[in-house]
Design brief:
Layout (H helix, E strand, L loop, with lengths): L1 H14 L6 H25 L4 H14 L4 H14 L4 H14 L3 H23 L5 H85 L6 H30 L35 H10 L4 E6 L7 H21 L5 E7 L3 E8 L23 H11 L3 E6 L5 E8 L13 H4 L9 H7 L15 H33 L1 E2 L1 H6 L6 H7 L5 H4 L14 E7 L9 E10 L2 E11 L1
Parallel strand pairs: 1-2, 6-7
Antiparallel strand pairs: 2-3, 3-5, 4-5, 7-8, 8-9
Length: 581
Amino acid sequence: MDVIARAWSKAVRTALPGPWRPGLVVRELVGALLIGGLAAPIEVVSGTGLALPMSVGAALLFLVRRGLPATALVLTALAGGVGGGTLPLLVCVGWSVGARVRRVGVLAGSFVAGWVLMTLFGVVKDAGQVPVELIVGFSLGGYLLLAVLPALWARYRAQRRALTDALRERNEQLVREHAMVAHQARLRERHRIAQDMHDSLGHQLALISVHTGALEVDRTLTDRQREAVGVLRLAAVGAMRELREVVGVLHDESTALPPGPGPGLPSVAGSGAGSGSGGVGTGGVDGIDGLVDSSRAAGTPVSLLRDGERRPLAASAGHAAYRVVQEALTNAHKHAPGAPITVALRYEPDALVVEVVNPAAPEPVGVRAGGAAPAVVSGGQGLTGLRERARLVGGMVHAGPTPGAGFRLAAVLPYRGAEGAGAQGVGTGSAAGPGTGAVDWAADWAVDAGPGGSAGAPKRRSPAIGCAVGGVVVLLAVAGLLVWGMIGFVRAAEDSTVKRSVYDSAELGTPEAEIRRQLPRGSDFFLRNLEGTGPTPPAGSDCVRFLSDDNGGTGWGEDAVVRFCFKDGVLVEKQHYRVKQ
């Protein structure tokens, strides 16, 4: 029993889907009563004797058309072939099918099955009374007008509503994405600021610390001067520590961002970079000379070596080379003060190799007699930033200790970024080739930039086009079927009409076969009501009746009829009379 109850509950929920709001309940009940009320008088006029069943069935089919639209359409069409009471319901069911059925196969199959059943039942019911071509023609024409045309209009409205909803959701998504892009732009700017603070200010503070450390052990200074220098060194170390903390705060919200520049934003490696050889702002390859001079001024022996034929370098790659040297010198000053540093720029056939090498520190510098070495302040972000910069231009960075307890930092930066978009520092990921991980977000955003899209954006076709074409096809088909039906009607009328000349030429005693060769084949649609009309025929005779084309003097509601009676194989009587329709 539980299984039956669950099955029944599921069937009811399927046939009568909710939610059943009060307004919907009232509308459905009023519609069912109206459809059922229209079905009864139509069946009474048709004379089928099915007024009550058709009325109840039409009301029930109206109620289940929302949950079972395809089934309701087939049953309604089948009932329409038996009687005409469900024809008003066919409009409502066709609308529901067009609005609710999404699968094209189910949609087309339900309409074809409905028309076939409607036509078959109509042919079976009126066989021998109405020409088959008239039944098929008027059945198809009425079906197209009453069911298919409302379905096309409903489908257009449903597709238009779906398209409007999709456009609204797309607009909301674009608004959200725009807000996300703005948020990412702020975070990336924080990241860029943190990187520049780390590279530039960190390098300068490291030089200050080295200078003050050297002065602090200078024997020519007095104790008071040496104490002032110590305060200055401690201030530089404190500033370095605070700088690292600020950089860490700025990095916190930026580390979760995906690699690569955001939409409409310059890449991190290219920010502040200038031309291929001489940068603007913090410097390109030409700025490396200034870094070397600053380190030499701090008392550190630094040698700069260049090898190979100099070639143009992309702005972002030149800036990355500058940052590599700057970071390497800063780390050497902090971790190996006083050790000689070698900076090498080698122009290989396909890339610039930047290498900075330093051995271990010879002795502590900047330490008072009997004092401890100052703690080295390190944020741990320098090498990570360098690897990201190199990756964005299609290169790579290697850092590690050397056999002599020293340290080596090397970067390989390709030239090919100098052509195309990479020269401007935008879209360097595409210049770097596949596998670099960079994404051309700006190009992707341009495709969906606005309502009109770009040249590469897919074009959306309006649902009105397809529905309008379908409506025109339906109307043309209905017009063609009506013309075909009228032609068949006229032909059936001609097949049921005897010309006056044939009637006059027929003489009594003429063989029946000769007379019948001159008579039309007839049509039950026009002649079935003529049986038994006219004067009493001769006893034992076989009579045939036809309409006459000589209807002069007949009024409205009258037909001119001719009758030929045969007996023993000859014509024994002919009559011309009028009957009421």
